């Protein structure tokens, strides 16, 4: 806890977002398929396929997660949210069988984040969704740990490409632990170095000079 | 859809890796504020109509615009706060005087925030240990030896060490200097620590 | 030379107590505080008396070294020790400052709600820093954006916006004084809560929340 | 924690040196050292031993465990047992690196020692990963970790603790409403 360099506000992970986290803002910009359960007068221009003045009740459209969350009400029917495929029963069965074969980046890239956020919408399937998210994380933990620690000295780039955002962040914290240890082993840990920012700005300057 | 401008600001920061500070996007900020103003005005109109004419069917749209207002507020606050975190880190990386190309990317209020932050930090460090003072921007890594071998990466002029000796820091020259005198210069990329 | 550096004057930690610490014990206290601060998710109580005493020791030693001629064999050994202690001290203070900045609204809130006799979380200089940091940041957000927003959107509740420290984080620890019946809360519905005894010298991985009070009493050391 | 900081703590361990100079007792803030007499062994912290060694002021006496026979025994035991066996020093890895780098001429069979310690380390790290995985998959709330060293913990710390945090959040998903969550995020 003694680094003075830039550390962004971390994402909330799970059902709560962190207000100031850029990651959470990007996650909550993911679009969800919804169906309006009432009409939205004077906002027809938001729905590109129609040229009516209002968004009528029963319109199927996509809204970002943050807006769906903001409009959704348990008691009053304002809109209903469709569960993205990857959280439905068919895919849940696949995940439960072997979470390691799934390309979570392609299915996500916010598999855990968006899945947790979906629990805000009162679906009867919520307990199963939450359970699958948890079991998927646990099931993939060993592979992710071993590769982030380079346990097998293999090329990990293919594996990293298949990680979801959350796993990627964990992977890089594992890698930085490994790098710190390896640079210590090589006797480099006590070398005083220029700050990465200074180095980056210098690199940029050099690039600027090149035609 | 609303709030797209605000998302652009967020993406712009997310693309700037390793804490680099992109130019302050005054134009983007203004556009978001304009969108907020117009959302607010539309809502004022609809709220008045809903009240006076009893048009409660307007409520869902009012709510939707209000969500967008809050979203814009969040994005702008997060944009500005994240920039502060980046700017704050600069104090440790560059010392108290920022290079011109970094300052150039800051807006006037950020420059003000930074100079107030520097002041707070300085008076904090001065008052440490019952007023004795300690520079905690030094000693970033465990010490290994009193003196270290360094190479100059650029011409930097003269450097006085504590016994009064003056050393000329000329590009490519090598020196054996007290570690604590070099730390900041190494971080700034003036000197390079040569390991034996 | 040896005379100048040989007074191992003990440090009086607190006048109200008869408790006298040797300089070596003082340094050990600083190192404990350093590791605890590094590894705990939340800010620990301030140890400004330790900081002050250590700085006094360093100043005193540096003054003595001024009187020693250049190239003295002992002087360089003393200087190396000073460097090592100053590193721990700076790193400790940096860790605290980092948490202060990360959690400033919550730290100030906790300080505000502190009872009359409770020990202060922050040293006076840290408190001043945190208050200025809060005001500075609030002023900035207002000036650049908030005051240009519609009237009902001109404030952001910093307590809700800035994330709190996560006390449910796990920590590694070593037990310094044996503890009995530490309640471990279950992780799942089908587990039951149970108690563990923490034997002296044993090491554990568990939730910070469970053992937080033991960190402040010094019964466990975070590692 | 940075590995260099763990090494910093290791440098506080004491080691025996045989000085080739004389010097009175030194009254350091952290305790007294010396006196130093040529040829007479004396205990000093590792940081000082290394400094004196680099200036050719002493010979370092390797700790008793830094010995091929003893380390072979330890390696075999470590491989046989499923649990972490007691280590000869809480800083065995750091001390091996430091002493072999700066005083290999004072340590018999330095290369064999380096390999043996690396073998012990690798075996223990493999066990550490195994226990981390079972800790996660069993959703344990507490683990006893006797005999693990700070450097070993440090290699996995960030990854394991961050993972446990995520796990905690994903587990809390199963009890929505138990969290505070009064703040609607837009």
Automatic annotation (TrEMBL), chain A:
**Known InterPro entries for this protein?**
GINS_A, GINS_bundle-like_dom_sf, GINS_Psf3, GINS_Psf3_sf, PSF3_N
Question: What broad class describes the main subcellular location of this protein?
Answer: nucleus
Q: Which domain of life does the protein's organism represent?
A: Eukaryota
A GO biological process of this protein is:
mitotic DNA replication initiation
Intracellular or extracellular location(s): Nucleus
**Which Pfam family name is an example for this entry?**
PSF3_N
State the function annotated in the UniProt record.
The GINS complex plays an essential role in the initiation of DNA replication. Required for correct functioning of the GINS complex, a complex that plays an essential role in the initiation of DNA replication, and progression of DNA replication forks. GINS complex is a core component of CDC45-MCM-GINS (CMG) helicase, the molecular machine that unwinds template DNA during replication, and around which the replisome is built.
Report what the protein is called: DNA replication complex GINS protein PSF3
Q: Which organism is it from?
A: Dissostichus eleginoides
TrEMBL record, chain B:
Organism domain of life: Eukaryota
Location of the GINS subunit domain: 52-128
Q: Does the keyword Transmembrane apply?
A: no
Tell me the InterPro entries matching this sequence.
GINS_A, GINS_bundle-like_dom_sf, GINS_Psf1, PSF1_C
> What GO cellular component entries does it have?
GINS complex
One of the GO biological process terms: DNA replication
DNA replication complex GINS protein PSF1 C-terminal domain: which residues?
144-195
For this protein, the record's Pfam families field holds: PSF1_C, Sld5
Q: Where in the cell is it found?
A: Chromosome; Nucleus
The primary site where this protein sits is nucleus
Q: Name the UniProt key words of this record, in alphabetical order.
A: Chromosome, DNA replication, Nucleus
Q: What is the similarity comment for this entry?
A: Belongs to the GINS1/PSF1 family.
| Cross-referenced PANTHER family | DNA REPLICATION COMPLEX GINS PROTEIN PSF1, PARTNER OF SLD5
User: Subunit arrangement?
Assistant: Component of the GINS complex.
What job does the chain carry out? Required for correct functioning of the GINS complex, a complex that plays an essential role in the initiation of DNA replication, and progression of DNA replication forks. GINS complex is a core component of CDC45-MCM-GINS (CMG) helicase, the molecular machine that unwinds template DNA during replication, and around which the replisome is built. Required for correct functioning of the GINS complex, a complex that plays an essential role in the initiation of DNA replication, and progression of DNA replication forks. GINS complex seems to bind preferentially to single-stranded DNA.
Name of the protein: DNA replication complex GINS protein PSF1
TrEMBL record, chain C:
SUPFAM superfamilies per record: GINS helical bundle-like, PriA/YqbF domain
Q: Does the keyword Nucleus apply?
A: yes
Q: Where in the cell is it found?
A: Chromosome; Nucleus
The family database entries (Gene3D superfamilies) matched by this protein are listed as: 1.20.58.1030, 3.40.5.60
GINS subunit domain span = 75-143
Q: Which GO terms describe its cellular component?
A: GINS complex
Keyword Repeat in record: no
Q: Where does it primarily localize?
A: nucleus
Q: Which InterPro entries match?
A: GINS_A (IPR021151), GINS_bundle-like_dom_sf (IPR036224), GINS_Sld5 (IPR008591), SLD5_C (IPR031633), Sld5_GINS_A (IPR038749)
Q: Which residues form the DNA replication complex GINS protein SLD5 C-terminal domain?
A: 165-223
Task: Briefly state the protein's biological role.
Answer: Required for initiation of chromosomal DNA replication. Core component of CDC45-MCM-GINS (CMG) helicase, the molecular machine that unwinds template DNA during replication, and around which the replisome is built.
Q: What does the sequence similarity comment in the record state about its family?
A: Belongs to the GINS4/SLD5 family.
Q: What is this protein called?
A: DNA replication complex GINS protein SLD5
Specify the taxonomic lineage.
Eukaryota, Metazoa, Chordata, Craniata, Vertebrata
Automatic annotation (TrEMBL), chain D:
Where the record annotates domain DNA replication complex GINS protein PSF2 N-terminal, the positions are: 3-61
Q: Which CDD domains match?
A: GINS_A_psf2, GINS_B_Psf2
List the GO terms this entry assigns under cellular component, sorted alphabetically: CMG complex; GINS complex
Key words, A-Z: DNA replication, Nucleus
Q: Where in the cell is it found?
A: Nucleus
InterPro entries assigned: GINS_A, GINS_bundle-like_dom_sf, GINS_Psf2, PSF2_N
- In this chain the GINS subunit domain maps to 65-162
Recorded hits in SUPFAM superfamilies, A to Z, give: GINS helical bundle-like (SSF158573), PriA/YqbF domain (SSF160059)
- Pfam family, any one: Sld5
The question of whether Nucleus is a record keyword is answered with yes
A GO BP entry is: DNA replication
UniProt KW Nucleus keyword: yes
- Quaternary structure, from the entry: Component of the GINS complex.
Task of the protein: Required for correct functioning of the GINS complex, a complex that plays an essential role in the initiation of DNA replication, and progression of DNA replication forks. GINS complex is a core component of CDC45-MCM-GINS (CMG) helicase, the molecular machine that unwinds template DNA during replication, and around which the replisome is built.
- Tell me the PANTHER family matching this sequence: DNA REPLICATION COMPLEX GINS PROTEIN PSF2
Give the family from UniProt: Belongs to the GINS2/PSF2 family.
Protein's recorded name: DNA replication complex GINS protein PSF2
The uppermost taxa in this organism's lineage are: Eukaryota, Metazoa, Chordata, Craniata, Vertebrata
């Amino acid at each position: 806890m003694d680094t003075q360099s830039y550390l962004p506000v971390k994402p909330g992970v799970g059902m709560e977002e962190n207000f100031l986290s850029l990651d959470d803002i990007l996650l909550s910009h993911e679009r969800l398929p919804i169906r309006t359960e009432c009409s939205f007068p004077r906002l027809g221009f938001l729905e590109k396929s129609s040229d009516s003045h209002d968004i009528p009740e029963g319109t199927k459209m996509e809204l970002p997660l943050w807006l769906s969350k903001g409009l959704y009400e348990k008691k009053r029917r304002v809109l209903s949210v469709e569960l993205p495929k990857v959280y439905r029963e068919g895919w849940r069965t696949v995940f439960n069988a072997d979470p390691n074969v799934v390309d979570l980046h392609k299915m996500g890239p916010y598999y855990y984040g968006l899945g947790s956020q979906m629990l805000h919408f009162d679906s009867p399937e919520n307990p199963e969704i939450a359970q699958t998210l948890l079991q998927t994380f646990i099931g993939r933990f060993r592979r992710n740990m071993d590769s982030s620690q380079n346990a097998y000295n293999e090329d990990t780039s293919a594996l990293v490409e298949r990680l979801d955002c959350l796993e990627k962040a964990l992977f890089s914290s594992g890698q930085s632990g490994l790098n710190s240890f390896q640079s210590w082993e090589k006797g480099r840990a006590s070398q005083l170095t220029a700050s990465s920012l200074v180095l980056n700005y210098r690199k940029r300057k050099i690039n600027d000079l090149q035609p | 859809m609303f709030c797209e401008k605000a998302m652009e600001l967020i993406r712009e920061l997310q693309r700037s890796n390793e804490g680099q500070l992109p130019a302050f996007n005054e134009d983007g900020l203004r556009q978001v504020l304009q969108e907020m103003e117009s959302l607010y005005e539309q809502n004022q109109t609809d709220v008045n109509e809903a009240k006076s004419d009893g048009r409660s069917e307007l409520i869902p749209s009012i709510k939707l615009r209000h969500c967008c207002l809050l979203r814009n507020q969040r994005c702008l606050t997060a944009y500005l706060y994240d920039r502060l975190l980046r700017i704050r880190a600069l104090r440790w990386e560059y010392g108290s005087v920022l290079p011109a190309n970094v300052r150039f990317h800051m807006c006037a209020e950020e420059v003000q925030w930074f100079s107030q932050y520097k002041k707070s930090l300085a008076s904090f460090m001065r008052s440490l240990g019952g007023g004795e003072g300690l520079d905690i921007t030094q000693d970033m890594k465990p010490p290994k030896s009193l003196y270290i071998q360094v190479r100059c990466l650029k011409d930097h002029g003269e450097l006085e060490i504590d016994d009064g000796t003056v050393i000329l820091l000329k590009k490519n020259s090598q020196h054996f200097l007290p570690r604590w005198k070099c730390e900041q210069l190494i971080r700034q990329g003036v000197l390079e620590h040569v390991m034996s | 030379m040896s005379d100048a550096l040989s007074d191992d004057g003990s440090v009086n930690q607190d006048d109200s107590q008869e408790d006298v610490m040797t300089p070596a014990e003082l340094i050990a206290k600083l190192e404990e505080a350093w590791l605890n601060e590094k590894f705990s998710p939340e800010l620990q109580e301030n140890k400004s008396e330790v900081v002050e005493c250590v700085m006094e020791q360093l100043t005193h030693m540096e003054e003595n070294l001024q009187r020693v001629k250049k190239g003295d064999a002992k002087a360089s050994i003393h200087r190396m020790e000073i460097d090592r202690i100053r590193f721990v001290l700076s790193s400790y203070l940096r860790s605290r400052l980092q948490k202060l900045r990360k959690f400033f609204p919550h730290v100030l809130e906790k300080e505000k709600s502190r009872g009359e006799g409770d020990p202060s979380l922050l040293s006076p200089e840290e408190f001043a820093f945190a208050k200025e940091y809060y005001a500075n940041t609030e002023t900035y957000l207002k000036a650049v954006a908030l005051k240009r927003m519609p009237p009902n959107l001109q404030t952001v509740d910093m307590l809700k916006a800035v994330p709190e420290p996560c006390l449910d984080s796990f920590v590694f620890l070593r037990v310094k004084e044996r503890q009995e019946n530490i309640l471990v809360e279950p992780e799942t519905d089908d587990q039951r809560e149970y108690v563990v005894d923490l034997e002296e010298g044993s090491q554990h991985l568990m939730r910070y929340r469970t053992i937080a009070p033991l960190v402040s009493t010094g019964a466990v050391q975070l590692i | 924690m940075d590995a260099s900081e763990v090494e910093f703590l290791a440098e506080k361990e004491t080691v025996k040196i045989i000085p080739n100079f004389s010097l009175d007792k030194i009254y350091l803030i952290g305790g007294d050292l010396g006196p130093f007499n040529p040829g007479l062994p004396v205990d000093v912290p590792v940081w000082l031993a290394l400094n004196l060694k680099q200036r050719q002021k002493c010979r370092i006496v390797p700790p008793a465990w830094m010995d091929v026979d003893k380390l072979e025994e330890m390696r075999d035991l470590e491989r046989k047992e499923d649990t972490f066996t007691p280590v000869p020093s809480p800083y065995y890895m750091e001390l091996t690196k430091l002493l072999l780098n700066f005083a290999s001429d004072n340590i018999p069979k330095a290369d064999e020692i380096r390999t043996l310690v690396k073998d012990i380390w690798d075996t223990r790290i493999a066990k550490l990963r195994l226990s981390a995985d079972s800790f996660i998959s069993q959703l344990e709330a507490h683990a006893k970790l006797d005999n693990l060293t700070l450097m070993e913990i440090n290699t996995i710390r960030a990854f394991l603790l961050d993972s446990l945090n995520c796990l905690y959040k994903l587990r809390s998903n199963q009890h929505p409403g138990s969290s505070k969550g009064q703040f609607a995020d837009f």
